[in-house]
Amino acid sequence: MVVRLRLSRFGCKNKPFYRVMAADSRSPRDGKHLEVLGYYNPLPGQDGQKRMGLNFDRVKYWLSVGAQPSEPVQRLLFRSGLLPPPPMTAMGRKGGPRDTRPIDPMTGKFLTPESSKKVDLEPNVDLDEDESTSSA
């Protein structure tokens, strides 16, 4: 039995509310689950922030025994600090080759390599001056 950590939808039409569940991968989205691990409310509250609550001890337990988080749950666990950032690649165009430059998961912008930030500090030497001194 493969256990997945995934979201189960609750709430009304146009007002979603999700519970983070540990469930068998073969069970339906809103079907039978093994344990409720937390909740996620994507609608902004009075302060404009999304609400999320997790039972960290139980999430760590399920991850330690081999449970696989779904992509949305993986993003939630990254935001809470339990998982490293998921690998992200940008699509150049639909069905086309992927851009392999790394992306910052918080901003969604491309990360620049460290080597391009370094400035060449060596002085520029003119070739004409070197040739004139060596021939004289």
What would you note in describing this structure?
The structure is a single chain. The chain has 136 residues and is α+β, with helices and mostly antiparallel strands. It has a domain at 3-88: Ribosomal protein S16 (S16 Ribosomal Protein, Chain: A, 2-Layer Sandwich). The protein is 24% helix and 27% strand. It has four helices and seven strands; from the N terminus they run ββββαβαββαα. The strands form two sheets. The chain has a five-stranded mixed sheet with strand order 4-3-2-1-5. The longest helix is centred in the middle third of the chain and has 10 residues, at 71-80.
Structural classification? alpha+beta
User: Beta fraction of the residues?
Assistant: 25-35%
Number of strands: 7
Please identify the top-level CATH class of the domain at 3-88. Answer: Alpha Beta
Q: Identify low-pLDDT runs.
A: 115-120
- The sequence of SSEs as H and E is EEEEHEHEEHH
Largest sheet: 5 strands, mixed
Q: Please give the order of strands in the largest beta sheet.
A: 4-3-2-1-5
Helix content: 10-25%
Task: Figure out the total of helices.
Answer: 4
If you consult CATH, what is the topology of the domain at 3-88?
Answer: S16 Ribosomal Protein, Chain: A
Shape: globular
